Amino acid sequence: MLDGLRGEGSIADLCRIDTTNEVEYFMNGGILQYVLRKLAA
Predict the structure, then answer these.
(1) Domain presence at residue 4
(2) pLDDT of 27
(3) How many structural domains is the chain composed of?
(4) Is 11 helix (H, G, I), strand (E, B) or coil?
(5) Helix residue ranges, H only, the chain
(6) How far apart are CA 40 and CA 19, in angstroms?
């Protein structure tokens, strides 16, 4: 259970990665970070 007001608690989640692009996004911490790193390079 997650307490939204204080940000305390934990959530169990399952992630499915189907493509090599999704692996890249995951390894970079998400699609936004992936795109920003590509733009900065």
Answers:
(1) no
(2) 93
(3) 1
(4) coil
(5) 20-27, 31-40
(6) 24
Is residue 36 a part of any domain in this protein?
Answer: yes
In angstroms, the Cα distances linking 25 to 2, 10, 39 are 25, 23, 14
Q: Is residue 23 part of a domain?
A: yes
Other beta carbons within 10 Å of 17: 12
Domain that holds residue 32: 16-41
Note whether 18 and 24 are within 8 A (CB).
no
User: pLDDT per residue over 1-41, tens digit each?
Assistant: 555 566 666 777 788 999 999 999 999 999 999 999 999 98
pLDDT of the residue at 36? 95
Assigned domain for 41 exists? yes
Distance CA 29, CA 16 (A): 15
